[in-house]
Amino acid sequence: MGNMLTSDLVRVREYNASVNQIWKHYQELGKYSGEGLRKPIIGSWENSKKLGINPFQNRNHEMVNGNDLEERLEKNAELLSFAAPQMNHLSDLLIESKTMLSIVDQQGTILHSSGEQNVLKKAEKIDIYNGGIWTEKSAGTNAVGLVLRTKQSSQVLYSEHFCEKNHDWFCAAFPILYPYTNELLGVINIAGADHQVNPKKIQYIFSAANQISETIRQYFFKHALQNHLFLNTALEGVEEAILIVDNGKSVVEKNRAAQSHSILSKLQTTTTIPSLNRLVETVLQTGQALMREAVTVDSQKQPFICSIYPVTFQADTLGAVIFFRKNTVSPTLTMKKPDSPRSTKTKTTRYSFDDMVGSSKEFAAVVKKARKASSIDSTLFLSGETGTGKEVFAQSIHQASDRRRHPFVAINCGAIPRGLFESELFGYEPGAFTGAKSIGQQGKFEMAQGGTIFLDEIADMPLELQVHLLRILEERAVTRLGSNKPIPLDVRVIAATHKNLAKAIEKGEFRQDLMYRLQVIQLRIPALRDRTSDIPALVNHFIRKMSNEFGKQEIVVQEGTMQYLTQYTWPGNIRELKNVIQQALFNMEGKQLTPFDLPPELMKQPEPGGDEKERLIEALVKENGNVTSAAKLLNISRATMYRKMKQYQLTAENGKVQK
Length: 659
Prior knowledge:
The chain has 4 domains: 3-224, GAF domain (Beta-Lactamase, 2-Layer Sandwich); 229-327, 2-Layer Sandwich (Beta-Lactamase); 353-524, P-loop containing nucleotide triphosphate hydrolases (Rossmann fold), CATH 3.40.50.300; 533-655, Helicase, Ruva Protein, domain 3 (Orthogonal Bundle). Mean pLDDT is 82; it is low at 329-345. Strand 6 (241-246) and strand 7 form a beta hairpin. By secondary structure, the protein is α/β, with parallel strands linked by helices. The longest helix is centred in the first third of the chain and has 29 residues, at 199-227. One of its GO terms (biological process) is regulation of DNA-templated transcription. Keywords: ATP-binding, DNA-binding, Nucleotide-binding, Transcription, Transcription regulation.
């Protein structure tokens, strides 16, 4: 809010009288001549006249209510859930300044209002309430209508309104813009009808409303990073050229690679490149991504492989992100259309998203992000404790990607002998070193051509070899040992570790520049103790998979057994849980999996409802030292009873009543 507008608002009588005279002359003559009116207001008056607005109308042209209003409220539920609490913080100030604050959707519909009660009642008379439409087409010149048309903060004071019924009111509106595409999501509007305004309070509340719109923008910035992983990629220094376009196909953002390209750096809209424009149009209309399409953007006919992803929010497509990669591999590889997302597993993978077990909030969130990550080609970094299933995620992402028909090559960087690292990863030519094969050998990167390479335990890669990996990621080419000829690569890299790379960098064990290259997109797999509600499903899953191995069928897990399993901290995560179930299936007799079938380390924790040793003694006492009867009482086998008695150094004598 400029100082001029603040002073105009404070000297309301003088300013309003002047503008009101200009307004009357405009309505009489049908045109504006002279001075004293701000340019945005002149333009809006002209626009209102063209739209056929009656300056003396008593009601706005459009209103929504009933089911239509409910639909708009539901569609904007996320916007409201964040904006409404922000607005509530200003309730006292709104009362003191005799103003009201409204949140408006991108169609000009008032969704929610708060403020001083007398102001709210007065506002209803001129349609400032939920369901009121405040576009220029409906209400003539007003602050909300100006924001909807210009996407810029706007103020309309008293007689600056085109319609006379609004001349007692001042309003200031601030846009809520989505990051990257700058599409308008909504408007924050301040309105008041008091002619005795306190300039300091008004200045403060205008500033607060502007801050609310900026705070919401920051919220959606985080939303974009979390739910559109490709936007996160666009912020990083990746090798692909990247453009972000709005839903009008205008270029609104370019990364460094695009800015340095002779054609893409000058591109303002995709409409100037017909082949690209058709693809963008398809994505904007369908809301579906297109991947690895061939596009030519310059006069040299240099082909690019282009992938385009929609940017969406609240079911609206706000724009698209376009990735360009030079076509350096064979046409048969890059032009292949992606097949069904649920293809059969290749011989190089065992897992897909169908194998994921768990419905907890923590697990579902990372699975959702992993599915999104499968639709893009950028380098992916998986972190998480040992045994959380990082390779399961890596394979599932590969299986859901358009690389699924090509190899998935996994290599454990912590298991390769130091002297064989280079030859394993990069390959070698004949005679490259003593003991080399006479025909040479492909490295893992070449073996993964067209597919995915999974570098597990990347933190264990020798420091001197990390520079070679960095070069591969930057140049997308690998050079075999004993050769100086680079081999172009079309490989997606997924790296993983259970270690803290930041600490490894501090110790001088890992290159910081390599970490940045690897952590383009990051997913952290939750530990099992952070998703304990998934343990019953995992237990039953492992029982179904492994019961035949032990000749077991129709196994029932006792409630007490499941309590032990859910209360254990699982330092080895899912891998440890699988091993525990395997051991329990071996130990058990009959069809019931009891607490006594679990390994001793799980039984050391406090038992749900009591101590295990005490339960054994209690059963022995009740049966006067008869082990068989005590086992039946505990619903366990006689062999398990003896095994547990040995574990706790008990004998039948512990149950006999002393005379």
